[in-house]
Amino acid sequence: MEDRSKILRLTLIYSLFFVLVFPLLVLALWAFTGSWPWPGLLPQSWTLEGWKYFLNPVNGALEALQTSFLIGLGVTILALAVSIPAGKALGVYDFPGKEFIKIFVLAPIIVPPLAVTLGIHINFIKFGLSDSIPGVILVHLIPTIPYSIRILTNVFEAVGNKMEAQAQVLGASMWQRFIHVTLPLIYPGILSAGIMVFIVSFSQYFLTFLIGGGQVVTFPMVLFPLVNSGDRMLAAVYSLVFIGAALFFTIIMERLFKSGEERSDHFYL
Amino acid sequence: MKKISLFLLILLLVLTVGCGNQVTEEEETSLLDQNWEQIKKQAEGSKVNFYMWGGNRTINHWVDTYVASQLKEKYNVELNRVPMGPDDYLNKLLGEKQVGKTDGSIDLLWINGENFKTARENDLLWGPFVEKLPNYEKYLDTDADKNTTDFGEPTKGYEAPYSRAQFVFVYDQAKVENVPQNYEELIAWIKEHPGKFTYPAPPDFTGSAFVRHVIYRETGGYEQYYDMTKEEVREAIQPAMEKLAELEPYLWRKGETYPATIAQMDNMFTDGEVWMSMGYDPSKATSKIKKGNYPDTARTFVLEKGTISNTNFLAIPFNATHKAAALVAANFLESFEAQYSKYNPDNWGALPVFSYDKLNQEQKSQLDELDLGKATLSQETLDEHSVPELPADIVPIIEEEWKEVVGQ
């Protein structure tokens, strides 16, 4: 009986794994070949040309990757700076209209960004923010902040402010309380919110395009036209790099935040 | 949310302090009064932002390497290619026009057809500048319709010819035995090989062009469409729409569905699912074979009574910051060496805009020796079988009708 359920479980896990990983395998194969006609099970010829194009500095892919990282980092820092106090307010304090605001925070991802951004674009031009990295960072806050506020609100709801109150009773100042009590408690929340924000910002295409006006060239902007025009080899190469870069950031963040002492989650488990 | 918007607003205000350097009107008009030497001098050391569709890595590479290095070497002008297509840069320019931004970031555009018309109607272009370019006079036939009109629309000097494209059909030599020579044979071939032909659904650019060929052949040529009202056009193209509907059972998947883009269709052709493809670029097959995207046996053909061709152009936006540098770049792109390099299938393979008669002996022989690649037809063959485009504003009507009659 137990065997059976174990087999069932394993089959389920592996088939899920297969469904997730198999497309990536196909992608990896496409990154090394220009054509893969039916009925060949594997491509007949292999080439490194896609990777050569990617690595060739004149094509600007590496530079775009750098810009994407820079913008992603800026957005992550700004979004967290906004979301930590907002999350605390929504998670810990009670005030009239709180539930409404909680839903309202999600508005930017419910309303189609296209509709809003065209209006924002005009204003950004007026303010001289279009065609610049600060402008792009600002506009990336729109689709990212709802996620980070939401995540941190839940974290604060679980943590509560009792520990902080205790520290206050013991005479800790506001900053001491934040640095030594609150921050360690919400680390895991910051980690997941940060990763989420970074990845959403990293994959923005339309907003960057419109506000950056082509002067800010991020990685998706070089990737998209190539995918769109059906260049499967190059699209595969760029997609793999894209996935790799996002993974890289995730791992760095995890290492950074989880290093040294084990930060335990037992407060809300 | 209120807090956030307040925060954003404050940030906005902080960031905007100190922005706004503007180019005066006088400077701009006087540029057109200057002679070429002065313009060249003014361009030195500045940067051209060249906004162009970025979906073809061969073209991208040519611009990033050959064009960029030549401009730097010869004129000390830096070229920055920006991968942004017409829909997006027109949006951007419209926005900038609306708020009166005068120091725009786009200096040079790759444009034609409907987009040019839109740009002109909204006063988004600067000019007329084409007479200023020494190479325009030197190498191009300045009286030819193909250089002075764009999809039937007079360019009035607001565009400089950059490249030419012509529609070709692509087939796989290993599979197609009797290559159709004309429209009737093509239709017969489609009927004899059910499921092996299709075309991308309009408004895909290439698919839409294919539909125009059917219109030309089914309704008696293109000339009639130059002065027709929209309603008359709708009426006139009906026989062609009916023909396309009648063909459906012989198409791939019995015409129940069409590839959405030419990219999809090319991949279907590569995979052997259909036996013909098409392209609005005569060197497409050669360059795709080179990239390994097409089988080695891919070849191209045109129809006896002609396939549609167009010229694509360079234009300068009304608020370009580096107009002098844009002029220098446009002039360089019209030169024999740039056009010749562009024509070479190793670099791009696009048809040149110069007129053969204006070349000197050496250039002529250079051109005659150029190997165009096994899948590209000679310029002579293409020229003999070329018909012009329809007026740009008819294209959307055709697309609507296609959707109505055929696409459903």
Automatic annotation (TrEMBL), chain A:
Membrane topology is: Multi-pass membrane protein
* Segments passing through the bilayer: 12-32, 69-91, 103-125, 178-199, 206-227, 233-253
- Give the highest taxon in the source lineage: Bacteria
Q: Where does it sit, as one GO cellular component term?
A: plasma membrane
Q: Tell me the InterPro entries matching this sequence.
A: MetI-like, MetI-like_sf
GO biological process, any: transmembrane transport
Q: What broad class describes the main subcellular location of this protein?
A: membrane
Residue ranges of domain ABC transmembrane type-1 in the record: 65-253
Its signal peptide is: none
Q: Which Gene3D superfamilies match?
A: MetI-like (1.10.3720.10)
Annotated localization:
Cell inner membrane; Cell membrane
Q: Which SUPFAM superfamilies match?
A: MetI-like
Report keywords, A-Z: Cell inner membrane, Cell membrane, Membrane, Transmembrane, Transmembrane helix, Transport
Write out the similarity annotation: Belongs to the binding-protein-dependent transport system permease family.
**Name this protein carries in UniProt:** Spermidine/putrescine transport system permease protein
Q: Which organism is it from?
A: Halanaerobacter jeridensis
Traced from the root, the source organism's taxonomic lineage reads: Bacteria, Bacillati, Bacillota, Clostridia, Halanaerobiales
Automatic annotation (TrEMBL), chain B:
**Coiled-coil portions:** none
A Pfam family annotated for this chain is SBP_bac_8
Q: Which PROSITE patterns match?
A: PROKAR_LIPOPROTEIN (PS51257)
> Would you indicate the residue range of the signal peptide?
1-19
Alphabetically list the UniProt keywords. Signal
Which SUPFAM superfamilies would you find in this protein's record? Periplasmic binding protein-like II (SSF53850)
Q: What is this protein called?
A: Spermidine/putrescine transport system substrate-binding protein
What organism is recorded for this protein?
Halanaerobacter jeridensis
